[in-house]
Write a structure and sequence with these properties.
This protein is α+β, with helices and mostly antiparallel strands. It has helices spanning 7-26, 43-63, 83-101, 120-142, 150-165, 214-221, 236-243, and strands spanning 34-35, 38-42, 176-182, 187-193, 196-200, 208-212, 231-234.
Amino acid sequence: MTQTPAFEDLLSLVQDRSAALRSSVAGSPDLDVRVPSCPDWSLRDLVEHLVEVHRFWAAAVVAGPSEMPPAVAPADDTLSADLLARSAAATEELIAALRAAGPAVGCWTWWGNSDVPTTSGAVARHQVQEAAVHAFDAQLAAGTPRPVPAVVALDGIAEFIGVSHGTAGPWPHEPARIGLHAAEGESWLVDLTASGSHVIDGRHETAADLHGSASNLLLTLHGRLPLDSLRSEGDRATLENLLSWPDLD
């Protein structure tokens, strides 16, 4: 199984995917164009969201262990009014907070009832995925969608199972086992039961399987691509249930 990138590599990937988002936005002649994968948002809204996310998680990391989300200080009025410059500054604020903390400092997270650690390292890992998926959103809106880099997507699949499935509670359907198989050579067998979602080792029979590139698997899990972007086997209703759980709206 692919290992999660080292902490410093995670910071570099947050920067890289955030820069990819800004690059796509910079190349668009219209910041008010709608984002097909987030239809309630324009490109401008997407960048503003990333600014807020980066500043929020920077504050969470700086605050340290807490049972409550952080209070985020108002943005500095002296910062540039330019949207992309503010986004770059917010990304640097997040990276600086994470680097100063290191990977092991506890902090508030919304996935506290999962098996994923509530640490600055887990925040860095999640922020790679936040930036990567929203970079794809920006590229899609700009008409230049590109695959998520394999190193990001492979870890992102595991992270999605741990965080998104891990906080979704009991599986609300008949128990099932589903295989996710990346063309890059990695697979995940996911047991879905009344106790939630759990990755299991070894070879086991499955009710259904999904096959595709790591990028397409990740983007389909995040609701950015349709089920038919992947090759499916087995019970389609089970796969449709998986992709609508948890509710991504």
